[in-house]
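Q: I'm writing up a methods section and want to include an example of the input and output format. Could you take the sequence below and give the corresponding predicted structure tokens, formatted cleanly so I can copy it straight into the document?
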Amino acid sequence: MRTLITGLIVFAGWAIFSNYWYVCKIKNLCGEEEAVMAVSSSNIVAEDSEPTTEETNNINKEALSQAIEETIILFAFDSTLVLNEQELQRVSDQLNRLKPEDLLLEGHTCNIGTEAYNYHLGKRRAERVKRAFISHGLPAENLEIVSEGETDPRVPNTSPEKREMNRRVVFLVRNE
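A: Here is the clean output for your methods example:
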């Protein structure tokens, strides 16, 4: 009986932690996103309205570029399936406002698989994001893709949760 109770407690703890990790860390739905959205969109342009010429001229391009560069698009294991489509749409909207001269899309993977395979998977992930941006009106000639594969992890690949954080595409905005 004691083993059963201990097992149930451990299972409940695991279930709570895994739900927290999925909702808060992978899907970014735990308040942090709202704070990031508020910071990245405050004093830029209202989300619902089309900016006027004057508003467009007053955009704080540096803050917007920084917000874009801090965004991470996460992917499913061994896939180009985007886990946080809302973030992808938000970045696309911000890029349409910023109109960067050049945007570097950098694809990354965890360390599962061969180095060559992960290089190509990182490239396919960056291409997936590029296609999404093009479909949202960004000019293809302003988008450059590279793959870092498994060579530049965000965190050490020491657990399944940490490997999930390394399956990503990040951005570098280059203006002027």
